[in-house]
Amino acid sequence: MSTRLSKGGRLIDRAQAVEFSFNGKRLRGFAGDTLAASLLANDQMLMGRSFKYHRARGAVASGAEEPNALVNLGRGAFLEPNQRATTTETFDGLEAQSQNHWPSLEMDIGVVNNALARFLPGGFYYKTFIHPRAAWKHVFEPIIRKAAGLGPAPKEMDGDRYEQAYAFCDVLVAGGGIAGLQAALAAAADGARVMVLEQTPVWGGRAPVDGDVIDGMAADLWVKTAVQALEGMPNVTLRTRCMVAGVYDHGYVLAEDRVADHTPGDGRPKKRLWRIRAKRIVAATGALERPLSFAGNDVPGVMLASAVRDYVVNWAVSPGDRTVIVTNNDDAYRTAIALKEAGLSVPCIVDARAVANGPLPTQARALGIRVETGKGIAKVKGTKRVTGVTLCMQAGEGAGLEDIACDAVAMSGGWSPVVHLWSHCGGKLTWDDAHAMFRPDATRPPISHDGLAMVYPAGAANGALKAAEALVDAALAGASAAWANPIAAAQADMREEAALEPVWIMPQGASYKLRAKMWLDYQNDVKVSDVQLAAREGYESVEHTKRYTTLGMATDQGKLSNINGLAVLAGALNTDIPNVGTTTFRPPYTPVTLGALAGEARGEIFQPLRRSPIHAWNEQANAYFEPVGLWRRPYCFPRGGENHAQAIEREILNTRIGVGMLDASTLGKLIVKGPDAGRFLDMMYTNVMSSLGIGKCRYGLMCNENGFLSDDGVVVRLAEDTWLCHTTTGGADRIHAHMEDWLQCEWWDWQVYVANVTEEYAQIAVAGPKARALLEKLGGMDVSAEALPFMSFAEGTLGGLPVRAYRISFSGELSYELAVPASFGLELWEKLVAAGADLGVMPYGTEAMHIMRAEKGFIMIGDETDGTVIPQDLNLGWAISKKKADYLGKRGQERSYLASADRWTLAGFETLDGSVIPDGAYIIAAGVNANGQGNTQGRVTSTYYSPTLKKGIAMGLIKGGLARAGEVVEFTKLGASPVKARIVDPVFYDKEGAKQNG
Amino acid sequence: MLTLECPYCGVMADETELSPGYEAHLKRYGPGSSDEEFEAYMFARKNPKGVHFERWRHAYGCGKWFLAARDTATLEVFGTYPAQSSAPPQDLQDKIKAKRPDWKGYK
Amino acid sequence: MANPVAPWGNAQFDGFAKVTEIGPLGMITLRAKRDVAGLEAAFAALGLTLPDPRRIVIAGDKAAGWMSPDEYLLILPYGAVNDALASLATSLAGQHHLAANVSDARAVFRIEGDKADQVLKKIAPVDIDTLAVGELRRSRAAQVAAAFWKDGQGYTLVCFRSVAGYMMGLLSHSATSGSELV
Ligand SMILES: [Zn+2]
Chain A closest CA to B15's CA: distance in Å? Predict the structure, then answer.
């Protein structure tokens, strides 16, 4: 059984017991435990089920690489699925649930998959997708959906707080083991700004567990001294519980800070995402031990040798009473020695190598441990827990030599440097044959904006696996990264280790039956036999094999399976590992919670909500808002029990017969000034703006260089050298940028300045036959037809407030648009509402505005235009100057197909039955096209029920356009007969303009 | 997530402060140009793997457009310079030529 | 005429730093090249000093900030803007320039306290530790444009009026007690 030892445990505080629950069972641990350590201390070896076969699984590792021990933490609004028990700190009140099982962890129905395993080989998903389709839909998918998947997605909104923060440094050190600390000391020595981030709660990494001696001190003490030295330097920032997730272009680094994961409810953000810009990065990310591939290597109780050592030394937890060691290297002997020193039994060390005579094997033998060389494990016995192993000759086919009873197996297939951060931004790797590992190729580093190396690998991450080498390597990396003078590295006692011997399959000649029980990817259930099958089926590229078999595609991203999988693939393809190459390492190193990525952007500040100065009034008036860009504009103002259609109809009729008010503050307003401003606007607009009289307004069109209509609005001439250009609501920033682009990048010698004053003014449209009467009631400036005729403006006061009044109309009614400094916008609005009470004034929303403009035949950018429409298509030729030699879009419009008579052009449509043509409807033409689809001859662009005309009206583009007026055409209607409509003039209301001009 | 130094305000700007403007040093062809010239102006883009000249705007900063010479594969930035330049500065061209001897020039 | 209204009602938030919406302040956008004749005199006539690139010069209740090579932000009491615009028109008559009142287009916030810097560190991709007193930095505050500078007691931040509510929410979230950057 696994249990807590009576002594030891360098990371736990036995004085601080904590209580937690696992699947509802109340258990006890100690402060300093990981959840995996606490569970093992309570003999809870079984922690989860695998993804595909639902096989019983326990922790195989002790850190971030853990593929099996995934749990749900918390509940309700605080539920977090797929958390690794090996990196979760145990705290008082922690609630964990195992996942991926049904109905229970101990008794899982899905385990029947085991029997079907032969029918679920590599590529199963792809093969099933292909045929038969019906079987997928009705048989496979429902079953797989029930059985598959990891933790459940939380159903409630996340109850925790998250945030992000920016940081800047000269050198970012990822990893707080001895290499990271040594690199930081070197980097900081000359004053560089250094940040050291360590993913676990403790400094020091593996060295203290391995018993290294540095500068004559136990590693623990050296680590403490180094951390104290760094803490004393004002130019150094140290953070634990902070995982460097990814390295991106130009030294951009994302790191996840687990601020309050272990102290929920203390008011701090649960997690903080650091967005760091580092000049250079030191990747001191250590190395991960590799599993060995033998049959049954996934049975709970089979663990990495280093993990077994961690549990014993760090947390005083013994994974088993009797642990068999299986290895291809000397390092695993440390585990045997550690177990023995803790008073536990090690029945045998099974070493695949023919000889093992180095200092560590010698020490192990001296402790009385039996060592079997040239041997392997044929298979592991047990299902929910190891009960024993069968030994075999490593060079053979797996014939059993001897059974050894044990309840744990510690395996070591050698070590792989953690090269992720080196590789994220393109650092290349080289295959180190002696150590059978990929390590960073110093000649091909990822580079930064200056063309120089951006990442410096240090220590084990650079292949310097022994402490003595790692410190020397790290001191150099740290100084190099800071472009600083080198410092002397700390000295670790050198301990000789014999070379490992690569072992990719155990035994070498294992039968299919054994290979089908050798797990490579534990979480996704990919076995040696699956990768070999993929190779036989023609998958030669490692990237294809990965996707076909799902090797390395689980939440652990193949940290344990990557090299073993490559080696098996290489073997199956009869080539070398470097020839197969590696898969691409992509961020994040371990999963980052979505809450941290969202940061503060949720709820009220999910995105900026732009409010007009009148927004608060609109809210109180029960406005139904619609998003227009980031603005919220009132769509309509329902009253009493009105639905939207009723409200819109009332708002329109009230404006047509009385007076209505629209909050038009969001319209873009750009001041264009300078000696060349007129010339500039003549280039920006299709029509002539330089000739506009001072005090006058003119409707203008803007096109892009392709000739397509991009924006429209009323241009006002304020003074001899100053114009004010109105843009659409969505166009303000875009058109401002567009103007600056041309002024800065093309005509930089023209003397023109542009200022965006969109938000300086609230703008209120007062429209309707009683508009003038309302303004006159407010008192102030002369708003008579004589003083202020249509398409002119005047400045003055209304109700004591400074206004600029434009006689422009988008509704077709007598209309004034009043611009007032935004600070007084609400005041003017409220004065108008009060003064207009007896005139029946009512606010109207954007939908009423849209319908009234459609009744009047005015186009709308985004309705009549879609980026493929030129002004000529919309019968706006009158707004295109024939005299001007040039304007943006002129050349584009001269292209043959834009000048063609076959283009669809604007017309109005009246349905014969008065119904409303559906949005997006096409106009049917005779015959079918090459694809057998019905031909079309046009489409609807705006379609409404007109409250004024009491029938459906529409605008649309049709081949031949208004020349076909009177003709009846058919519009498509989904699931119904086509709608018949007559082609008419698109101006449905006040064709002569008597009302707006009045 | 690039960083580019704005030549106007001197800020080493995070990419999130910038907005991209695609290829630099295009010559505008307006009315009177041939179909081929206009097509090249509107649509023909080099899209090289290697040295590229680009327009960027310090949109969240000083608002100015500037030009950048950059390697699209390695992301090395050779330099930035004001948009009011009809050709890359000679010293920048020399620097690029020294670093990328195979480079054929900006045109 | 009633008093002008600050976009977010002069809201306040007390967290580990204090956030206050101030204003409305008088603000003028001045577009002019640095070599325009009379520019320094135009500033002087307003009691202002022409700022160096990326600087803001504060003098009592007035300030002048460098926004770009041809743009300045003049800050003065709200009621003084019209006179200042008239003064600029006189000083720069005949010179190519553009001066516009933008007092109502902006919202202004103060962030104060020992840890005020941390509030900005959470929202702007800017190395706040190296931001000098009197340096005006235009950048991004989370999802919107902002300009800010440091003086003795804290930071002043300017953004567009329409996003004043967003900014207040953002600053408050960032200044919430318990979320100090340690
Ligand atoms: Zn700039």
Answer: 10
